[in-house]
Amino acid sequence: MALVAGVDSSTQSCKIVVRDAETGALVRSGSAKHPDGTSVDPRFWWDAFLEAAQKAGGLADVAALAVGGQQHGMVALDAQGNVVRDALLWNDTRSAQAAEDLIVELGEGDRAAGAQAWADAVGSVLVASLTITKLRWLRDAEPENAARVAAVALPHDWLSWRIAGYGPEGDPTAPLGPQLDKLFTDASDASGTGYYDAQATSGDGYRRDLLALAFGRDDVVLPRVIGSTESGAVAHATIAGDGAALIGPGAGDNAGAAIGLGMQPGDIAISIGTSGVVSAVAPRRTQDGTGAINGFADCTGNALMLAVTLNAAQVLDAARSVLDADFGKLADLALAAPAGSDGLVLVPYLQGERTPNRPNASGTLHGIRLKNMTQAHVARAYIEGMLCGLADGMDALRALDVPVERVMLIGGAAQSPAVQEIAPQIFGLPISIPEPGEYVADGAARQAAWVLASATLGAEAPQPAWATKMSKTLPANPVPVVREQYAAVRDLV
Ligand SMILES: Nc1ncnc2c1ncn2[C@@H]1O[C@H](COP(=O)(O)OP(=O)(O)O)[C@@H](O)[C@H]1O
Ligand SMILES: O=C(CO)[C@@H](O)[C@H](O)COP(=O)(O)O
């Protein structure tokens, strides 16, 4: 029985699954925490990977592995393979002004034209999350660090490179040293940088002209973008398979989830992790000049369209903190209040917001009355407000004629019974809950199995036919007043 491993190096933790390459059966798993914060030394990701691998029983026996990861994080490396500063993550908003400046610059002073020009060029209007804005910020705020940059990678690229044995000069866990030209990535994650066009018909897809516009130079190594079933390297013998385990291209975490769920056009995934994501696969990417929808790539050659919020599971973590509640108590409280929380409405911009683009906004609790100042109403308002932000994202997808046939709810907070019960009220649609699982890590494992099959059968090897089972489907239960109340106050920030 050949085994494969899938890794999800996400915002809050590293999760690893080991699965049977043929059947997809789960064999072992492990996870380890990442530090809090929006600016993180990547060495913590490496340490968490090693801990999660050890908890998963080690990876010595896997024949292939692949890494999915939080998107967009700027991992800037010097010529010796050291990170020049802590990585700026997707939810770090310090580059919001840089994003605005780049939009106006590409539009030669016309913001609307600039927004559309970015959407046409790379699929997305720039916001602080995208890597290219972080490079502009680095150029202006930390010119000494900017001058040292020899390569720019993303979290999943960097981790794949480290697993292959590369890394900082003199680091005993990086026996192959700082070979920057060995960095590799995939189209799904590259498409979230802001300097890669997944639909380019010539060249390697990188828009070095846009990189130069942002960073002032383009003489940096960018990871080689490899195909969906190619292997970019083998894992170092200290990690896996006596130095013979193939490392797949990996993926941005949302593309990883898409392949993990086996998404087809018509499927929508709502992920409630650190980020809130509403995503859909399609044959071609959108070019949404409003900026509501990012037109990224998936990791099978299709497009992946996403609406992404900064305020998702951590809004519920904040509610638990305010209410001194564990997950169970928060859900019980929320379900004890009526739909609409008797007019109490949370606009959940606790970390600013990305969709809509309000990096400096803060959250607001509206409609406070004696009647609704109970723990139950507050708990429900937090969940409803968070879900209303995502429902707006779903509307933005629909506005682009994206078909909505099946909606699946995943991510850490999807486990909450209150989220599961309230979501069909707010989305007004049936919602399927897949069996509990780590769908990004599962997608990476499925990709690894595909890479393994392709190594023997060639490029025609089909994607492994692993089944994705739903544990239940909750019927649509629309309660329009919840979104109406939200829409009435959403812009009062
Ligand atoms: N039962 C639950 N109810 C509400 N939130 C939960 C529950 N279980 C986990 N979470 C939250 O889910 C988040 C982690 O989800 P995850 O999808 O792993 O995030 P990420 O991939 O961004 O690291 C945490 O904020 C955690 O508090
Ligand atoms: O920025 C995005 C997608 O554009 C986020 O979805 C990140 O990829 C983080 O994902 P999680 O850690 O929340 O899963």
From TrEMBL:
InterPro entries: ATPase_NBD, Carb_kinase_FGGY, FGGY_C, FGGY_Carb_Kinase, FGGY_N, Xylulokinase. Keywords: ATP-binding, Carbohydrate metabolism, Kinase, Nucleotide-binding, Transferase, Xylose metabolism. The gene is xylB. CDD domains: ASKHA_NBD_FGGY_BaXK-like. This is Xylulose kinase. It comes from the Bacteria. It comes from Xylanimonas protaetiae. Belongs to the FGGY kinase family. Substrate binds at residues 71-72. PANTHER family: SUGAR KINASE, XYLULOSE KINASE. Its EC number is 2.7.1.17. It is an enzyme of class 2 (transferase). HAMAP family: XylB.
